[in-house]
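lol ok so funny story. i was supposed to be doing the assay writeup but got distracted and ended up predicting the structure for this chain instead. priorities right. anyway since i did it might as well share w the group, maybe its usefull for someone
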Amino acid sequence: METLTRPHTVKIYECDRAKRLRLHCLFNLFQDVADEHADALGVGYDFCLSRGIGWVGANYHLKINRLPAWRESFALSTWASGKTAVSGIREFKAETASGETLFYASSQWALIGLETMRPVSVAKNLTDYVLHDERVIDTTFPAVLLPERDDAAVEFSVRYDDIDINDHVNNAVYPLWALEGLARDYVGGHDIAEMEIAFKRPARIDDKIAVFTQIDGLTTTHRIAAPDKSKDFARVRIGWK
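and the output, tada:
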């Protein structure tokens, strides 16, 4: 199966105050279709777990034309577009029945050994799987640089509900944490046009989280780290409109 396409209709519990698809629901949909497609390709969760390996999110580059509204339907497609020595590249695209592209993303997933938590060879550990080489964003996932200054900072604890089946904070949570560093009127007065996320290390239940944010007009840069900056969990860059 070269490409998987799944229809989806926005539910009321997936909506924000503007009755549009919530950001974390968008990322949860990405994870869900990626998991289903990886299973279809023979390199999914159960296959990897039986061999002591696993896919870990490394980077996302997302672009949003608009977020679908409550009760609106769209088709979400995903496909594996490439491989490196220790990672896989995966694309996502959401389209309406009329052909309008709502949002799309390229992502990179590292293959790791679950005991060592270190990258392992894709070629040596996985059976060959089908690629579709179309890229929705032509990116090599360049580094998201650290903020040069802290225009805002906020601290909080990991919630129990943030933890997923891998016993660490789910990838969909980090974009929400990034927004915690911004004033409500800023988030409420703008829409996200583009987001780049670089995951650095998984946060766990006992971690304390701080978000250090630099604001440059319609670009914000976020460092998600320990309060003393001794370790980084993720870096996020957002373009607003």
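The chain has two domains: 4-125, 152-240. The two ends are 37 Å apart (CA to CA).
back to the writeup now i swear
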